[in-house]
Amino acid sequence: MDQPLSPALPVALVTLALLSGCGSASPDSSDARSPEQIEASIEALLAQMTLEEKISLTHANSKFTVAGIPRLGIPEMWMSDGPHGVRYEIDRHSWASAEREDDFSTYLPPLTAVAATWNPKMAALHGDVLGSEARHRGKDVILGPGVNLARLPLYGRNFEYLGEDPYLASRLVVPSVKAIQAHDVAASVKHYALNSQELNRIGVDARPDERTLREVYLPAFEAAVKEANTQTIMGAYNRVYGTNANQNHKLVMEILKGEWGYPGVLLTDWNVDINTYDAAMNGLDIEMGTDVDSYDDYFLAKPLQAMIENGRVPESVLDDKVRRVLRVQHSIGMMDPNRRSGERNTEAHQQAARTIISEGIVLLKNQQVLPLDADSVKSVLVMGPNADKRHALGGGSSEVKALYEVTPLEGLQNRLGDEVEITVLRGLSGSGLGPIPGDFVASRHWTGTPAWQLAKFEPGQSEPYFDDWQVDSHYQVATPGQTEQIRLRGTLRPRTSGEHRLLVETDGALSLTLDGQPLLSTEGSDAGQSITLQAGQDYQLELNYQGSDQFTLGWQAPGDLFVDAEQYMAAAAGADAVIYFGGLSHADDRESIDRSDLVMPGGQDEIIANLIKANPNTVVMIGGGSPVEMPWQPEANALLWGWYGGMEAGNAYADVLFGDVNPSGKLPITLPKRLEDVAAIALDDYNATDSLYKEGVFIGYRWFEQQEIAPLFPFGHGLSYTQFRYDNLALSSDTVQGEETLTVTVTITNTGERAGSEVVQLYLEDQAAKVERPAKELKGFGKIALAPGESGEVTMTLGYRDLAYWDVTQDDWAVDPGRFQLHIGASVADVRLSKGFNYQ
């Protein structure tokens, strides 16, 4: 087990803790602190602080720390990224890796996989590992979990969050936060609020109506505050109603700290668009990551001190922030010599990663293909870009330096051993020139994924007006017919020495240089150039283009990394089993960039269709955190969704494929057939300026039902290797009044021949509301494990808030008298039982 990175507690801190009774209730503590003791300690410390010392607690003093006050025994407070693992150590004052050898952590499945388990116990297990490892790494605040909803399937950070439904996210964030904080680490629920796109994530202005805000985008945060007592909340990058979310009076002062009575800390994400006065007066407590030369230049540093000294900002405003910071520090035991120490990279944590993804894998379709029979399978063809890809060091701030990561291919090898022949092939798409595969690209976006640096220039200008990264070496102008001047740069690293042929398809003027030397140029026609390159050596490539359509840069490399359709189809026809591991990677799902469409990259659709044609029993497992189109889906007979699976993904995938684990995951998102079917796209509400949330409360499956659009696979869908029967739906009453609760029970029977688990879902239909409500709203669920032939009862409870909508005329929650209908089923589209009741 790795050793903790935190230093020993200073003597002054230990003395203060012993004298004041500070510290958390840990297993070997004899007594817990009362709230009165904590508040008394806070006031005693506050009274001794100078103005400068107070200011020092409201902004960063390094990339991930807030200053301590040694003379008062207050230690430096350490934060770390970590929605699904504690991020590796970076330099104190830069984003460069600290190049340590003791900062490995368990790579857990991301939160979309947790959401797919539909199991609060898995959310708690996830939080337990994360909290324990953060504490062992000497962290005080772990920046997660994330609860922004998957409104847009193109959103680059969907994989970090808990799906598209506010109720599901609310029920899973609570056990996650509680488990994290049980280890004397503060959770930081993020990103508050309305963070639903990466396109111009700092400048886009979110402006939903009040009912949509309350019913859809705030419930998970409210649950984290009121039920889980989250110690910190991270604000969003985007603007809300015209100003940055971190300094939004309505979000912070009226709702978070007003209505909800939140006593904890609101901290920024790194480098947000705030100003000193609004941030100070509207509830921001800690500022992190601002891009300035000195930490003294942060908005809540010297500029805030100056405003207090000249009387523009009352010192009492600063005192409130300091009290909140101290309250968090006391609550997580930073003043406690008996503080928990945590564990890291243990066998139990690795098993937890495997257990979570095993429950989160979703069996989308199965025409008597799965599970595979290990005894009869003697040859397996494995294809797809995710077969041997590792995902831990990608995605953005959520990257994890894993002790190991089992790929799908390695999982199969572990499960099948040497007696089964496993052939691995990479398919070559036949649909035109493809961009240079990421396998050969050494240049990296800051999220850790292969990428190319793209710059755009005004005619005749040498300085770009746009400079960013893109996934591959293909470019389509923003407005067809309008001329653009483009520069594309990347670093190539060949895998095999020998002759490589660089190829371009273009409509405009294009030139190419390699290590600064001219290689080729063309005026509107396709071209190619052969050159000898050495394996493992880096080559700097620069492409300059002027045109009004598009270009693609590809190449032909020596070796047998890729094979054509005739070869892989022949191999598929002769194999006992064909398994394709495809979908997305963190070149697609990543912070700071949204996808442009739902098409799987690299011509995967063509290859999958060919495989199914050659072998109808081809098993397709899609990885990724957001939907993809599947034009071949009607012909597929075995289809699974594996998300990003964490460090034990390959072993867990093999467990499910060969029936050692019966899949029980359910989709926490809707998988659309087409991008145009999605609300934000259909309503033309996705742009870099304003997000009006035109669909209102009809997010995700609610929109598909309202518009009567059949998705590819519906929200809540997921099959099993066994079957379940639903019986005996019973309600505790036929009539509910006022604040009364309603208890709902249903009997589930495993009618198949395998043990398995079923997620029972409760959807509510309000037939009497004065406002338009969704045809179904998720308001309950329960997961039950049953042996063959066994029956069990699932119980769910509905309260007033479950029945209510946000009444904008009363500015409060309301339930209109009348008839409600309950729908119990295996997905939103697979209702098995229904029953009505009255509210009066």
TrEMBL record:
GO MF assignments: beta-glucosidase activity
Q: Which GO terms describe its biological process?
A: carbohydrate metabolic process
Keywords for this entry? Hydrolase, Signal
Tell me the leader sequence span: 1-25
Question: Ranges for the PA14 domain?
Answer: 431-573
Q: Which InterPro entries match?
A: Cellulose_deg_GH3, Fn3-like, GH, Glyco_hydro_3_C, Glyco_hydro_3_C_sf, Glyco_hydro_3_N, Glyco_hydro_3_N_sf, Ig-like_fold
Report the sequence similarity comment from the record: Belongs to the glycosyl hydrolase 3 family.
Name of the protein described by the UniProt record: Beta-D-glucoside glucohydrolase
Species assigned in the record: Ferrimonas marina
